[in-house]
Amino acid sequence: MPHANPLILLLFSALCLDIYGQGVTYYGDIKPIIERNCVSCHRAGEVGAMPLTSYDQVSAYGRMIQYVTSSKLMPPWYADAAYSHFSNERVLADMEIKTIGDWVSAGMPPGNIVEENPSPDASQKTTPQRQPDLVISMAESFEQYGIYLDQYQVFVLPTHLSEDTWIEGVEFVPGNKKIVRFAAIAIEPTDKFDSLDRWDPRYGFYSFGGTGKTTFEPYWYTWSPQQEATFFEEGTAKFIPAGGKLVVHMHYGPTGRPEKDSSSIRLYLARGKKAKRIQTIPLINPYTLSSDSLFIPANSVKTFHASYILPYDIELMSLTPQANLLCRSWEIYAKIPGTSAPVKLLKISDWNFNWKQTYHLEHPLSLPKGTEIHALARYDNTLENPCNPSEKPVDFRWGAHLFNELFMVHLEIQPAHEDVGGVHWIVPSVVSGDSLEALLLLDKTHYYEIQVCGQSANNGKPLYAGIFKKGSNALSLGIADLPGGNYTIRAVDNSGNLIAEQMFVKMRETGL
Ligand code: HEC
Known about the structure:
Elements: H1 6-20, H2 26-37, H3 55-60, H4 62-70, H5 94-105, E1 134-137, E2 142-144, E3 151-158, E4 165-173, E5 180-188, H6 194-199, E6 205-206, E7 217-223, E8 230-231, E9 236-240, E10 245-252, E11 259-261, E12 264-269, E13 276-277, E14 279-284, E15 301-309, E16 314-322, E17 327-335, E18 343-348, E19 359-367, E20 372-380, E21 397-398, E22 404-405, E23 408-415, E24 423-426, E25 430-431, E26 435-453, E27 464-478, E28 485-492, E29 498-506
Parallel strand pairs: 9-13, 21-22, 25-29
Antiparallel strand pairs: 1-12, 2-11, 3-6, 3-10, 4-8, 4-9, 4-12, 5-7, 5-10, 14-23, 15-20, 16-19, 16-23, 17-18, 17-20, 24-26, 26-27, 26-28, 28-29
Helix pairs in contact: 2-5, 4-5
Bound molecules: heme C (HEC).
């Protein structure tokens, strides 16, 4: 074998080195990547720990940025982008991750200075043109403790709406963007939270993994950083029953010094228009587990599987999984009747309690009656799990507290055919306690039979049946004996045809 000329080798490797770091500079390559993907959170006054708006700031964190991007910790996005995509997805392309790595390895050259803009506002909001009809604000500002711990507080905000109201747009306005990490808004017409509010001397009340009690509609609207005002599709709206209150579960991020927040919610009413209801409902819940109850003994790793068969056609708009600290992963998919490959909905391989969020589908997904929604979640109650809140593992049972676990997927849906047969009804998403209160507006045939059915509705008899007349009817149904689970309320016309149906979940009071 002839010897290679050492000079040529040297030249070659020098060339390689040059190609390796070729031209990757801050101004040429890195700045645009950071501006597109990071600056909306990493600039003054925002939630990101430090600003990344100049060469000096970015290069000071160079190695750390290389680490957090290559390990996919930043930008924060926990859904597996190889499984499914969402409209609010935040991911870097592999090429961008490599470019950042190459730049750091090449000594972070600045390159030719391009005018240093004063922090370009990458998330420049498209502020709604319209004035909100109603602005609901926190009654006081809340001061989180100035310590390096996340804090969770619930605020009950009255809307003073004396009538049932349809909402066609919502905007959550964080009062202090440095600390507001997540807000989950539920709707509740009763005063059931008053006692909890009294218990905590501060404004609102502390609650870790949820509001601590069931609500008329949990996860009615959620906000996480970068979420803009939402206007729902023409002819669709969210619903607030008369007297409804907004129950806002806030997650405040850690800071070294006390920070105050006073957030507000802007509502845009759908006046006088008839709308299809966009409903959020926890169709995947512990009652749909295929075996076992949600019990995670100390020092065990357990995977739970749940499924639910849709009783009617829906359009799915978003998914919000809910679990506490032991949870490690989620996989959610749908099996549509007559098709073999399941529709992949959401996979989270590294569940992070502090980056909870709603995953908005790119387009509403039509799921026909008979579709099976499946969810798998894995919980690690060993010390291998760095998030285990206990230094010595203890048994975990269902609940919203720190040493409890949750298993819930909230689906934001629209019934594909509502108001067929002139039935309009207001049924809570979640029912607890002794009675189901619903309002039915029946305006076609003279008489309807209203039935409440369980999962095996089609084979079995309805659990409840009653005759109602045309017009507005208030239904109050004793359901104390009904076991927890998913149900439908159905309207059957004079000739026995099923004409409208709505799902609800019966859950014990501490369900959420
Ligand atoms: C949605 C808001 C958001 C976006 C987008 C975002 N970050 Fe962050 N980043 C945060 C928050 C909040 C923290 C504080 C740590 C935490 O809570 O996870 C953080 C922390 C960091 C840290 C410090 C990590 C540590 O352990 O202290 C680095 C470095 C970082 N981000 C880099 C980036 C880079 C680079 C991008 C873009 C590729 C980016 N971030 C995009 C919100 C964001």
